[in-house]
Design goal:
Elements (H helix, E strand, L loop, with lengths): L4 H19 L3 H17 L4 H23 L4 H10 L6 E4 L7 E6 L2 E7 L8 E9 L2 E6 L2
Parallel strand pairs: 3-5
Antiparallel strand pairs: 1-4, 2-3, 4-5
Helix pairs in contact: 1-2, 2-3
Amino acid sequence: MVFSASVMWLIAAVLLGIAELMASTFYLLVLAGAAVVSSGCAFMGVPFEWQIGIFAVLAIAGSVWVRRIRSIPTKSDATAHALQNMDIGQTVDVTEWNDNGRATVQYRGAQWEVRALEPSERLPGSFVIERVEGSVLYVRRAS
C-alpha cells in the first residue's frame, strides 16, 4: 500500500498532535498545524520541496510566536512568585549573634539560620528577610 504525500503529512500531524497531548508544550501543536498546511499543499499538487519549505517556515514562525506568547508575564506569574517567596519582607527578631556572624531564630515553627547581609548590622533587634536559600534567611535591619 502506497500513501500519498498528503496522507503522510496528515499522519505526521496526528502523531504530533498526540505527542502534544502528552507533552503540553504547544510547540508540537505548531508542528502539527504546519504538517496539516503541508498536507493541504500536497493535495493541491505543490512540489515536495515546497511542502518541506512551507512546513519549515510555519514551524519556525509558530515556534517564535509560541515563545513570545509564553514569555509574557501574567498576573498568575506574579502570584506564583509571591507564594514561592512568601518569606521575603517578613520580620524576624534576633536576640543574639554568634562569633561567626550567624544567628538562630524561631520562625514559622522551625529553627532557621540567619545571616546579615551587612556585617555592621549584627546587633540584636528586628530584621527584614531579603532572601531565602534553603534554611538560611538573609536579613537586613528593619527600619
